[in-house]
Amino acid sequence: MIHAEHLTKKYGAKTAVDSIDFTVRPGLVTGFLGPNGAGKSTTMRMIVGLDVPTSGSVTVNGKRYAQHRSPLTEVGALLDAKAVHTGRSARNHLLAMAATHNIGRRRVDEVIAMTGLDSVASKRVGGFSLGMGQRLGIAAALLGDPATLILDEPVNGLDPEGVLWVRNLVRHLASEGRTIFLSSHLMSEMALTADHLIVLGRGKIVADAPIADILSGSTRPTVRFRSPEAARLANSLTASTVDITQDGSDLVQVVGLSAPEIGEIAARSGIVLHELTPLSASLEEAYMALTQDDVEYQTTAITQEVAR
Amino acid sequence: MSTTTLARPVAPNVRLSSAGILRSEWIKLRSVRATVWSYAIVVIVSLALGGLMASTLYLPEAIPPEAQAPLAVQASTFGVSFGQLVVSVLGVLVISGEYSTGMIRSTLTAVPRRLPALWGKAVVLFLATFVVGLVSVFGAYFVSAPILAAKGVESSLGTDGVLLALLGGALYLAFIAVFSLAVGTMLRSSAGGIATALGVLLILPTVLQIIPATWARDLSPYLLSNAGSTLFSVPSPGGVLEPWQAMLVVMAWVAASLAVAAVLLKRRDA
Hints:
The complex is a heterodimer of chains A (308) and B (270).
Chain A: E1 2-11, E2 14-24, E3 29-33, H1 40-47, E4 55-60, H2 71-74, E5 75-78, H3 90-100, H4 105-114, H5 130-142, E6 148-152, H6 160-175, E7 179-183, H7 187-193, E8 196-201, E9 204-210, H8 211-217, E10 222-226, H9 230-237, E11 243-247, E12 251-255, H10 259-269, E13 275-279, H11 283-291, H12 304-307
Parallel strand pairs in A: 3-7, 3-8, 5-6, 6-7
Antiparallel strand pairs in A: 1-2, 1-4, 8-9, 10-12, 10-13, 11-12
Helix pairs in contact in A: 3-4, 4-5
Chain B: H1 18-30, H2 33-56, H3 65-101, H4 103-110, H5 115-150, H6 162-187, H7 190-210, H8 214-219, H9 224-231, H10 243-267
């Protein structure tokens, strides 16, 4: 359980995290989304005390992280895959981390095996690929068999097999009742992994809800229909607050009405429908809709004409 | 929402402890190449310089008895002046290497109260460097003393001040390593830390020597490296500081630098 109250971080005049309140609950995978610079990493760093909040507080299982007698068994964190001395071997890195908490050599070998690092454990970390570094970071996070796991972009640089492994691992750990807090910019991956989402934009919470609610609630229903009298049907829909795009002569996309509603209207007007398809919003669309005003580093939209 | 609570067997002895932090820092210190190289260089150079000085010393006249022991000590601690530069670089790297690689974030996540990690580093570095210092200085003594004895310069560890001066040489190396660790913690950069630490050791004494003022001359014995030289020499009648006073001066430098380092480490975001 992670609990933040009015958590704020300012760097000079710039507010990175702006008085946010949230709770990350046990037994669930909570996804943490937001554009670059939204304050995700800063928030995660404040949870484990690497950054000190300007005001407000964040606790893990009721206490500030630093106040726990055994921090590594409370929280395992992967915040930065490169948080390892490049001149030291992976095993020695893990042994040094483990020694602080009197965690035995057996557990070190266990996490090395779990993360598939056996063959490179005695090699110096400087020569590791991004994916290997990421696995070592996850191994370090798992050392204390922690009740809460905080992973910042854990699948970054992993191969498809590694991505699947991380997904299954966090799902499994959540099913054991652990608290999992996970950030990722891979929306499709998040849709498969997370139960609950917290979306951050410009240091503020834009959404905090179960993933199903975000998918259905934040976007309006989108329906596509095909009809020989597409234009006439489209006209009879304009009375309502709907967005209509007509691509081609007989294909229309409607935002704001459900498929049954359109079907009823078509029937009442005696219009033949050749196709009526509800389009489910992807997490990516839902996310874009939530954060479009909060993107810190706004890119100019490239119109299709230009792209072509 | 699932309200499963986690029931997991946590071994009762698994928790953050001072002993664990010391063991962790010892693993860290010995598992990077810089440490092995630095300590090897300190020992080898100390033995080589001691032997070289003793064997090349040209003594046309007999040395008066009261100057014999100081000469033997000088040969044994000749390498300390060089060794201090090496352990200084090592001391800075112990922490700046963590900042440059990002390791510091792992360290401070494991020891979130932070200061125990600094104390752990300081203690381990002090002890390791002290042992290496003992090997270097006493090794150099056992290499040079027989050569000098053949030239009529007699000394023994029992001679007044010899044992203390040799111990002082090893202690001084250990203190320099910890002082440099503190400087590295303040500056968080290898280049800046090494430049500053070596500046204090080498350049500060020269600068004070150049300034033609009484206060500069009065201040000089209290500089870190000058107090150190007093610490690892047989006390001479004209010396400003007694060895125990020199020891206190060196310790004051180390304590002050560690205090500043501790405040900054605690206060800054990592």
